[in-house]
Amino acid sequence: MPRRGWEIPEHQATTEDAFLQRRKFLKTTGLGAAALLTGCGYEKSFNSFSEEVETPAVDLEPDIPVSLYPAPRNAAFATLDRVTTDETAAGRINNFYEFTLKKDVWRRVGLFEPRPWTLSVSGLVQQPQTYDIDALIAQMPLEERLYRHRCVEAWSMAIPWTGFPMRDFIDMVQPLSSARFVKMTSFNDPETAPGQWNHPEWPWPYVEGLSIEEATNDLTLLATGVYGHELPKQHGAPIRLVTPWKYGFKGIKSIVNIEFTATQPATFWNTITPDEYGFVANVEPDVPHPRWLQNRETFYRAIGDTEPILTLLYNGYEEYVAHLY
Ligand SMILES: Nc1nc2c(c(=O)[nH]1)N[C@H]1C(S)=C(S)[C@@H](COP(=O)(O)O)O[C@H]1N2
Ligand SMILES: [Mo]
User: Which of 59, 69, 209, 211 sits most deeply, having the most CB atoms within 10 A of its CB?
Assistant: First the structure.
């Protein structure tokens, strides 16, 4: 039986120290970045690598699979009061307007190339720079978290994301004290994204933002994987935001730039329909959308298998975020 995303494989049931050592090896040899750039599994790339190049002078145990996924699950986010949505449903019912206004994004991402990819950091920050995405991922502490996921359209899922806390990233790049907001921007490429091609009238690229306090909250994740492997294109490869106490549209996909700003950035939805999509956009059951109520939602267990449930304040994450508002 294939391993489920949340079951920690044996090789990761090692000490934290062993785990870090392995990462260090990946980093220092540059193997991690080189192999991951191919977009296929590390294991496979490693095999072809060792055929062509001399074996590195490191005592590698041959039975240790050197892969970043699945990552160890963070115990604080290991369970939820709902079943995990089936992976096929989560991967076939998506919102990604760069490709389509419909939900079958997975059928329309064929031309999109999430690798090679760079993520730049700019604005009010001490370390502005451009990262190769796989070099960045190899140096960040990946973990898995099961989160509720609530779209403003009143459907929801429970999804196991893999990623690193945005706070760790922010600590690394060191924003200036004048930075109050984080503005995140997606790609703009109508040639490979039919939704952008078909809707040149929209304010592409997709932009989202958070206050610094929100961006450094315990919950805020930059996700690079889902269901125990790298993000597929329709989920926002190679890196996307996850803020589970907010409506899903805040969770910007396929990020190319993170900018630190002094003022609140204009965002994609807020620019198009300011009365419907606020900047803060927290899940609040008592605050209706102008066109529908928000106190109930349709929870997806699998495709065609849904359940009506009550919406929770801050999507059930009150203890983490209530102090911010
Ligand atoms: N770049 C970009 N990010 C985006 C969107 C989008 O259209 N473009 N849709 C948002 C919306 S409305 C939701 S609900 C979530 C959906 O994430 P999922 O498809 O991985 O479940 O992505 C968000 N991130
Ligand atoms: Mo959404």
Answer: 209
